[in-house]
User: Which sequence fits this backbone?
């Protein structure tokens, strides 16, 4: 197997050959665009809502020759990082919008959707939105129901976004890769990243998680990845879930696992990984003094932050706030340490993330789905990426890792891709 990094060469003035490093899989997104035969698209207008990381920029660069975006929205809790606004504005100019918070983003999205739909109406086009987290679909149904015939579809990457769409009387197609096999692999690595971030915070506080109980609420893909990563740093993970199948699997994987959180009272760390409210006030009340509380899912869903904010607090650096819970006859006063204001722990500025070459396999799936919306109409409803479409992305990634060029690439051709199918409600993260 060829594991050498890809590179490109040039000739210096001295006549000597020089090489500039480029990782072997860096051209995946460009290659998927070429493989699909993705032609310049003038029949649609495009909006993207994303976390403004380097891998997102590479996806936009790969699409630049075929798509013109009306706007690029950065999700506030991940994109409001030092230097991001300036760097993205330098590359994409006024297309980039990074609102200060989620309410401001909702207002900005409504305004932009209105402009883009008006342009679609005037120019005989349709709108396509690629988003993360289910921000746009509810807004379209709330404010633009009379214009939904102008929406070709929305492409979603997260289970949270699919769940939000499933709650609606859906009048548009929503295509997604939220439960694809490649997404499962990325979610497991996301669990590793979250533990690395939280372990780093604990170390900065002078705390070792080794030998301490750590409770993970939610035994889905990310939660399982978190539990396994905790075990690798010698913590003592305990898993909480309401699904007996997930509890059985956790037990057989060697974890302490329960429905009610049997280890909460002794947990030095608790991480929510359900995609919904997993740590309400009554569970937070059970935690011991000094427990670290963190989220492993998008937005600010997992933890009852409002309950914590009813108590006095002080900051312990930029990423941690200590909330001092009042004592009573049953419990003494104690402090809980909230990570990143209840937003995902791996979105702390400067923290490590899942390696780009893994995330880019999911972005390749997004490109496949975006291309699909330009090629054929979809009925309103939820459409999952097909297995053949997943295989194309995996095959191209393997080709790059193994050093095969485009002429040898991907035994799965675009014509092999089958129609995506409606899917039932997704399980926990």
Assistant:
């Amino acid at each position: 197997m060829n594991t050498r990094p890809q590179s490109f060469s040039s000739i210096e003035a001295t006549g000597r050959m020089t090489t500039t490093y480029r990782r072997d899989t860096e051209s995946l997104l460009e290659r998927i665009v070429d493989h699909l035969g993705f032609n310049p698209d003038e029949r649609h207008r495009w909006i993207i809502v994303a976390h403004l990381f380097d891998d997102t920029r590479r996806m936009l660069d790969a699409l630049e020759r075929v798509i013109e975006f009306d706007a690029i929205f950065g999700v506030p809790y991940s994109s409001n990082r030092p230097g991001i606004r300036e760097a993205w504005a330098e590359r994409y100019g006024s297309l980039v919008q990074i609102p200060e918070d989620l309410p401001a983003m909702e207002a900005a999205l409504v305004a932009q959707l209105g402009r883009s739909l008006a342009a679609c109406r005037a120019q005989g086009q349709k709108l396509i939105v690629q988003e993360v987290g289910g921000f746009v679909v509810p807004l379209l149904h709330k404010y633009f129901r009379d214009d939904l015939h102008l929406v070709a579809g929305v492409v979603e990457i997260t289970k949270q976004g699919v769940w939000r769409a499933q709650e609606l009387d859906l009048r548009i197609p929503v295509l997604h890769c939220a439960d694809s096999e490649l997404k499962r692999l990325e979610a497991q690595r996301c669990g590793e990243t979250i533990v690395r971030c939280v372990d780093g915070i604990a170390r900065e506080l002078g705390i070792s998680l080794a030998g301490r109980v750590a409770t993970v609420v939610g035994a889905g893909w990310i939660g399982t990845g978190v539990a396994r990563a905790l075990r690798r740093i010698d913590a003592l993970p305990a898993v909480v879930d309401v699904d007996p199948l997930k509890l059985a699997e956790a037990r057989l994987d060697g974890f302490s696992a329960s429905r009610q959180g049997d280890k909460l009272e002794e947990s030095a760390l608790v991480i929510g990984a359900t995609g919904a409210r997993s740590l309400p006030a009554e569970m937070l009340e059970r935690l011991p003094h000094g427990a670290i509380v963190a989220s492993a899912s998008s937005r600010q869903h997992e933890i009852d932050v409002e309950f914590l904010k009813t108590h006095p607090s002080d900051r312990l650096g930029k990423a941690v706030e200590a909330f001092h819970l009042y004592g009573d006859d049953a419990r003494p006063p104690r402090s809980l340490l909230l990570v990143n204001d209840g937003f995902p722990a791996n979105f702390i500025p400067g923290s490590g993330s899942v390696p780009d070459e893994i995330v880019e396999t999911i972005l390749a799936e997004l490109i496949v789905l975006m291309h699909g919306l330009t090629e054929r109409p979809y009925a309103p409803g939820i459409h999952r990426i097909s297995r053949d479409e997943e295989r194309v992305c995996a095959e191209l990634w393997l080709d790059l890792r193994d050093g095969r060029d485009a002429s040898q690439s991907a035994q799965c051709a675009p014509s092999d891709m089958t129609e995506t199918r409606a899917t039932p409600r997704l399980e926990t993260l």
User: Anything to note?
Assistant: Residues 126 and 150 are 5 Å apart (CA to CA). The mean pLDDT is 89. Residues 181-204 form the longest helix (24 residues).
